[in-house]
Structures are given as structure tokens and as C-alpha cells.
Specification:
By secondary structure, this protein is an alpha/beta fold. It is 40% helix and 14% strand.
């Protein structure tokens, strides 16, 4: 029998847009939006004679006494501090600690002292050597992965995962992105030459998740639609697979660039396959900021019009918005607010610009002497930054972003974007079974949200009314309510929920 192994996905140090802490905090069962893909993928590379267990700390407590000889820890920057805490505790208990994942790969100097074994990069081509060395009791201090052919990537071990409390599963169909946004570390980690899995390989992973009960699945690609030839072939295969599901179709979500809106045929292929929710990095309406950060795919188009095209095609859009670019002055918050009011997008993810290590932005700002001392810590928080702003003070940047959050997530503003979404989204064919507007989880959350005021109660009533009128949009409207509750929980958690005021008065 091989060595025993515990794989750990640590909790994040603060609430996030997708982490769904609101469920437990407001009296419901603990759950997460997305099942963890990293631990389940690594688990599939472990020799079959090794006893292995997975712990996702976001949904279950860690058993430090678990009888494993080796503990593998993964994580992003938002999990950094907890990764270090866990590594120290497991080493104190005599475990051999192996650390890998995105943060360790991008910033190995910060994690090297906390690991007995450090694994950098993608693991498919080096996994055999890593586990052979561990089995022999002679592991190297550090292993460096390659950028492998994804045909080598195994079907994740979802059978080991506590899946019943994850709202959606994940399948990664490609790695890498050809764009070169200055602030993005994806291309530093996974490269600009996109690699992808063949459709049959993707379907094998979908089959596994489907028969485990998942009906919502994220295609966890950095840019799902960027290579048109390959994605059309994949969508055709997924559409056929989805049409044959005996227990109901799967709803897919993914990430894509705004240039998807320029391709009506591809949008239609997404909808036919069941890809009806897409995250798009809009970032800002400030063209100077887009140009400075090399977000060229967002230039020379009407961003709001492109988003409306996606919605009119039947795709629910969620957007990423960033404040704090060098070209952003104190007027950017009002400009962002006015721009967002034109979007049929309830779910907006705000972040203050950060300079992640290894990115061109980090290198440029280091050269300019504009990196703050908090370079390595806290960057998982949406309000944190390690950048000295160029055209405003750090305090003004934070206060303006908080004002913008409150403005955009005021109940009436959110309701307006929900109405725009419903008005623009085409009707899907039925019939739809009769059902009450809200299920048990929504009722429990709505009762708590309603305690905050009349405006919140009006938002709840609107969503209920729209779900009755548009039963084809029940899933989207449920997501809109859950997401709103999570954002309000976040703002309350950080003590930054305040009634919207005029920005000029606020500063």
C-alpha cells in the first residue's frame, strides 16, 4: 500500500462574491457556489493504492488528527494566510507538507519556507515522479511542472469530494489565454498559447458530475470562446450530450471576453448547448484605462451595447468592474455608476486594481516605486490594493469604491437592472411546471433580507413577481436573489453598507 495523503483546500480569509457564506450566516446549511476542482484533479493523479482523502475547509472543518502521512495544500492569493497557518500546524504534528496551486506557483519565494515539498506549475507530466519520490521517502524540495497536453489530465476524483453542499461542479476544458491584460496573472501561470481537451474527454468529465447529481456546471476556462474552431466543435458535442440527459438538462456557465458578442453564430451555439451564463471582464468604461492595461478586446466597441447583445441572445451576463487604474481620476466612480445603470446585469463583481506578482503591472509599478508594503498580504480582499494610486489618494480610492458598491447594490438600483435583464432576455420554450416563486432557501434568505427595510422588501416582491411571469427565467432570478444576499452580507461584514449619497458630497 502507498503512502496516505490528505488534500486540503483552505478557507479564504474573507467573504467573496462566490463563496456564499451568507447561507450559514443567515441560519441555513453551509454551502459553496463551486465544488473545488484543484484537489479533485490532483487526487486523480495519485497512485490508486494510496489511501487518500479530500478536505474542503470552506464546507467542513479540518481534522488535524487525520491519520495521513502527507498533507497536500493548495490555494490562491486569497487563501495565502490560511495555507501558511495550516502548513505550520500539520508540520508541528509531524506531517510532511506539500504545497502547490496558483499562489505557490506564482510566488514560490513566499511559500518555500512553509513547505517540505513545493510543487510549481501544472502537475500532469511530473505527478508520476512526485509520487514515486514520496513513496520512496526521498522527495525533492521542489518540483517544477510543465505546460502539458491536456489529454494527460485525468477525470477528477469527484467521488472523494463532499459534493452535496456545492451548488455547481466544474470542468476545465482549456488552459491559457491569448490576451495580454497587464494586470492578469493567468498568462504567467498557464501561458498565452491556449491548450484544450478534446470533446470526448470533456464529456467523460460531464458524465461523472451528472451521475453524481450536478445540474449546474462551470466550464472553468480562462477564456472559453477565444478559439472559435475548437469551441464550436465542443459546443456541438455538449449540445448533443445535454439533449440526451434522462434526468434533465445541465445549465452551464463560463468566462469569456466581450468579443463573444460579435459572433451571433457562436452565441447561438452556446445557448443551444446550455451555456446560458457568462462572466465578462468589462473592467471600466474609461477607454484610457483600458488602453493603458492592454485590454484591447474592450476597445473600439460600445461595451453596454455588446452586453445587451449577449443578453438578447439568451445569455445571462455577470461583469467584473475594476477601479484604480492609473488613468482613473476622482470622477471615475460617477462614470462607473452611470455606465452600470445602462447594463442589463444585476451581478457586478467589483475589485480595486491589484498588482499580482509576476504580472507586467507589478514589474512596471515596482520600477516606478509605486508598490505598497502590503505587497504579499491581503490581496484576496476586493477592497485591498498594493498599488499607490496615480491620480487620487488611497483613501479617496477606497471611499469612492465603497460609495460605488453602495450605489450599485442599493435595492432600487439592483431592481432596475433585474427588470432590464428580464425585458431583454428572449423567452424560452415551455411548458414549465407550476411552482411557487420561492423555494425554501430563498424564503429563508428573503425573510432575513426583508428585515433591512422597505426597499429590500420591494426587491424581493419584484423578483417573485418576475419569476411568476417568466418561469423560463426562474433559475436566473434565483441566482440574482442569492447573489444579492451574498453581496449585502459582504458589505455588512466589512461594515461598509451605507445609504447611497452623492459622491461629491461623500468626499
Amino acid at each position: 500500500m502507498g503512502r496516505s495523503l490528505l488534500l486540503v483546500n483552505p478557507r479564504e480569509h474573507s467573504p467573496g462574491y462566490y463563496s456564499m457564506e451568507v447561507l450559514e450566516a443567515w441560519g441555513l446549511a453551509r454551502a459553496v457556489s463551486l465544488a473545488d476542482l484543484s484537489t479533485t484533479t490532483v487526487a486523480a493523479m495519485v497512485p490508486r493504492d494510496w489511501p487518500i482523502s479530500i478536505c474542503d475547509e470552506r464546507i467542513q472543518p479540518i481534522d488535524f488528527a487525520y491519520p495521513a502521512e502527507i498533507v497536500g495544500i493548495t490555494g490562491k492569493v486569497s487563501q495565502r494566510d490560511r495555507m501558511i497557518e495550516l502548513a505550520a500546524e500539520f508540520r508541528r504534528r509531524g506531517k510532511l507538507v506539500m504545497i502547490g496551486g496558483p499562489y505557490a506557483s506564482l510566488n514560490p519565494d513566499d511559500m518555500r519556507a512553509h513547505a517540505d515539498v513545493l510543487v510549481r506549475g501544472e502537475m500532469e507530466e511530473i505527478a508520476g515522479r512526485v509520487f514515486a519520490d514520496l513513496a520512496a521517502g526521498r522527495p525533492e524540495k521542489e518540483y517544477v511542472g510543465t505546460r502539458p497536453d491536456l489529454a494527460l489530465s485525468p477525470v477528477p476524483r469527484w467521488d472523494l469530494y463532499p459534493r452535496r453542499i456545492a451548488l455547481a461542479g466544474q470542468v476545465q476544458t482549456s488552459r491559457g489565454c491569448p490576451f495580454e491584460c497587464e494586470f492578469c496573472d493567468v498568462i504567467q501561470y498557464l501561458g498565452r498559447q491556449q491548450r484544450w481537451k478534446e470533446p470526448d474527454q470533456v464529456v467523460r468529465e460531464l458524465d461523472k458530475l451528472y451521475w453524481l447529481g450536478f445540474r449546474d456546471i462551470l466550464f472553468a476556462d480562462d477564456n472559453f470562446t477565444v478559439v472559435r474552431r475548437r469551441v464550436h466543435a465542443l459546443l456541438e458535442r455538449v449540445a448533443a450530450w445535454n439533449a440526451e440527459r434522462p434526468l434533465g438538462r445541465v445549465r452551464f456557465s463560463t468566462q469569456a471576453s466581450i468579443d463573444l458578442a460579435r459572433d451571433p453564430e457562436l452565441m447561438q451555439a452556446c445557448v443551444e448547448a446550455g451555456v446560458n451564463t457568462v462572466f465578462v471582464g468589462i473592467e471600466t468604461p474609461n477607454t484610457e484605462s483600458l488602453a493603458e492595461t492592454h485590454k484591447r478586446q474592450n476597445l473600439r466597441v460600445d461595451l453596454a451595447a455588446e452586453v445587451r447583445k449577449l443578453t438578447a441572445a439568451g445569455i445571462l451576463v455577470s461583469c467584473g468592474i475594476i477601479t484604480g487604474f492609473d488613468s482613473d481620476g476622482p470622477d471615475i466612480f460617477e462614470r462607473q455608476a452611470a455606465f452600470i445603470e445602462t447594463l442589463p446585469v444585476p451581478m457586478i463583481m467589483f475589485n480595486v486594481l491589484k498588482a499580482a506578482i509576476t504580472t507586467p503591472l507589478h514589474a512596471r509599478l515596482a520600477k516606478e516605486g509605486r508598490l505598497r508594503a502590503e505587497d504579499l498580504v491581503g490581496l484576496g480582499s476586493f477592497l485591498a490594493t498594493n498599488i499607490v494610486p496615480k491620480r487620487m489618494t488611497l483613501e479617496a480610492l477606497r471611499e469612492g469604491t465603497v460609495w460605488l458598491l453602495n450605489r450599485v447594490y442599493a435595492p432600487d438600483a439592483y431592481a432596475g437592472r433585474v427588470r432590464m435583464l428580464v425585458d431583454l432576455m428572449p423567452a424560452a420554450g415551455g411548458p414549465f411546471p407550476a411552482a411557487p416563486p420561492f423555494g425554501p432557501i430563498e424564503i429563508a434568505l428573503a425573510r432575513r433580507l426583508a428585515q433591512w427595510g422597505a426597499a429590500e422588501r420591494q426587491l424581493i416582491a419584484l423578483i417573485g413577481e418576475l419569476k411568476t411571469k417568466r418561469p423560463d427565467l426562474r433559475g436566473h432570478l434565483t441566482y440574482a436573489l442569492l447573489f444579492y444576499c451574498q453581496v449585502r452580507f459582504m458589505l455588512d461584514h466589512f461594515g461598509i453598507w451605507n445609504p447611497p449619497r452623492e459622491w461629491r458630497a461623500a468626499v
